[in-house]
Amino acid sequence: MQTKENGKIEWPKEKLLHYGADKLTKSELLAVILRTGAKNLDVVELAKNILRRYPKFSLAGADVAELEKTFGLDAARACGMIACFELGKRMAAEEKKPSVVMADLEADSDPIKIAPEEDPLAKFGTANFSKIKS
Questions:
Q1: For residue 47, what pLDDT is reported?
Q2: Residue-number span of the structural domain to which 30 is assigned
Q3: How many helices (H) and strands (E) does the chain have?
Q4: What angle (nearest 5°) sits at the alpha carbon of residue 48, between those of residues 43 and 49?
Q5: 115-130 pLDDT, tens per residue?
């Protein structure tokens, strides 16, 4: 499926180049990854069918053989598509991980003190390097 913008026909790749990836639909983004369509389907229609069958990140766990059989994809395109979705899933998971944020301590507050028996590093002891001869 081509789109008509400003009087000219544009495919998803051209739309991405001209307007940026954030302006494309999910099916157009997948069409860019797929590059070509299948029998009787242009690349955007193929992408729509795939996204209907595999919502959200479920495409990351898709079976290559099923993609080949159901959608007529070759192994290279099926693997590339699965890899892209797996990468996106992992990156989204990293974004959700809480990060450690250091809070500003008030000037009049005492620093946090850990009792020696609770200090996880205390069991390693200390080293005295002052007696080492060079």
A1: 95
A2: 3-96
A3: 5, 2
A4: 100
A5: 666 666 555 555 555 5
Give the lowest-confidence range in 43-47, 95-99, 101-105, 109-113.
101-105
Q: What is the DSSP letter of 117?
A: T
Distance CA 55, CA 122 (A): 50
Looking at the domain assignment, is residue 92 inside a domain? yes
How many whole angstroms separate alpha carbon 64 and alpha carbon 77? 9
How wide is the angle at C-alpha 13 spanned by C-alphas 11 and 66, nearest 5°? 90
When divided into structural domains, the chain yields a total of 1
19-28, 94-103, 113-122 — most confident range:
19-28
With respect to residue 52, please indicate whether it lies within any of the assigned structural domains. yes
